[in-house]
Design a protein that fits this description.
The protein is of the alpha+beta class and about 350 residues long. It folds into two domains: about 240 residues, Zn peptidases (Aminopeptidase); about 110 residues, Alpha-Beta Plaits, CATH 3.30.70.360. About 30% of the residues lie in helices and about 30% in strands. The protein contains nine helices and 19 strands. Strands 1, 2, 3, 6, 7, 8, 16, 17 and 18 form a nine-stranded mixed sheet that branches. Strands 11-12-14-9-15 form a five-stranded antiparallel sheet. A three-stranded antiparallel sheet has the order 4-5-19. A hairpin with a 2-residue loop joins strand 11 and strand 12. The longest helix is centred in the C-terminal third of the chain and has 22 residues. The chain is elongated, with a radius of gyration of 23 Å. It starts with a helix and ends in a 5-residue tail after the last helix. It binds zinc ion (ZN). Zinc ion binds next to helix 3. The site of zinc ion (ZN) has 5 residues, from helix 3.
């Protein structure tokens, strides 16, 4: 039986523990203590990810959430108003993704205290999700028995199932110009900021189409107003749920840099790195059928969505563990207005429990 106040208190306990990316130790200890008290063995890998397993009958299912949060996350003071948990307004709340962690722990409590048969469960709590899915990438997925998974790391209405997510390329470029005294002899210099600006202005950026986006997010260069700058560093990204469109977009950004550098007689070093791979699941995929069937069985109509963001699910899908993200009710994440309704966490726990019925 789901215990609403136990679930709420678990969430509040986790929210109060600061857990920036790379600083998940204390919250991981708290989570491990809960698992241990439930009689579940906990393994912590070199990256800090927590893996635990519960035996059962039927096909195993992965349940996963991440333990880190974005900032500001020091001294989070959760406040409950009308069944909704907020921070006190000075920090994030960390429902992204502690709402997911709390739901999974409540589900495990229900399974271990109940008599009913359930599927075997692999439970994975990752580190460093918010800084590029680094925990999931470092995790050895051969440790998992499950070939299907449910991630509890998404917002939106109850019933939201993320069945498709983009791949992402990161772009890092350095434009090399030539330094000169800006007042005495500017004609001897080559302004790297100018070249970078022309290149960025020539790039298609922002929303490219329904499934493709691109951004230049960081530009840094120059040292003084009286020096023609000889070096600018640019960092950006492109994402698409279409591999072909991602390639086209990435090439357009690279070409803009190369063309503007060449036209100005400057040099540019460009590095493109794949951040994560896309995934696309359909209604016919077993994990989607499982989750949508479970939602309907508890009276929630599934809403299948494609997202523009990557998550740990991208990494697990690429490793052959078909994983969807479902909403656990988190809202306005990555802001100080972040909140989550207890009723949404409860209904998420109901959905996950329904997924774990052996015949489901
Ligand atoms: Zn998240």
């Amino acid at each position: 039986m789901i215990d609403e106040s136990r679930l709420l208190n678990q969430f509040l306990d986790l929210a109060r523990i600061s857990s920036p990316s790379g600083g998940e130790g204390p919250v991981a200890d708290a989570i491990a203590a809960v698992l241990t008290a439930l009689g579940m063995a906990v393994e912590r890998d070199a990256a800090g990810n927590l893996l635990s397993r519960l035996d059962g009958v039927g096909e195993p299912l992965l349940l996963t959430a991440h333990m880190d949060t974005v900032g500001p996350c020091e001294n989070v003071t959760p406040v409950v108003r009308d069944g909704v948990v907020y921070s006190d307004g000075t920090t994030i709340l960390g429902a992204d993704d502690k709402a997911g962690v709390a739901v999974i722990l409540e589900v495990l409590r229900c399974l271990t205290e109940g008599e009913d048969a359930h599927r075997p469960v692999d439970v994975l709590f990752t580190v460093r999700e918010e800084v590029g899915l680094e925990g999931a990438k470092a995790f050895d997925t051969s440790q998992l028995r499950a070939r299907m998974g449910i991630g509890l790391d998404h917002g939106g209405e109850q019933g939201t199932v993320v069945v498709s997510a983009p791949s992402q390329n990161a772009l890092q470029a350095t434009v090399h110009g030539k330094m000169a005294h800006a007042g005495a002899n500017p004609e001897l210099g080559l302004n790297a900021i100018r070249v970078a600006a022309e290149a960025i202005a020539a790039m298609p950026l922002g929303r490219i189409d329904e499934e493709t986006t691109a951004n230049i997010g960081i530009i840094a260069g120059g040292t003084a107003t009286n020096i023609v700058p000889d070096r600018v560093e640019i960092q950006g990204e492109a994402r698409s749920r279409s591999e072909a469109k991602l390639q086209t977009q990435t090439e357009a950004m690279v070409r803009a840099l190369e063309e503007r550098a060449q036209a100005n007689g400057a040099r540019v070093d460009i590095e493109v790195t794949r951040q994560y791979d896309p995934y696309r699941l359909g209604a016919e995929d077993p994990v989607v059928a499982l989750v949508t069937g479970a939602m309907r069985s508890v009276g929630i109509e599934p809403i299948m969505v494609a997202t523009g963001g990557g998550s740990d699910a991208n990494v697990f899908n690429a490793a052959g563990v078909a994983t969807v993200q479902i909403s656990c009710g988190m809202a306005e994440v990555h802001t100080c207005e972040e909140h989550v309704a207890l009723a949404d966490m409860v209904s998420t726990a109901r959905i996950v429990l329904a997924c774990l019925r052996p015949g489901a």
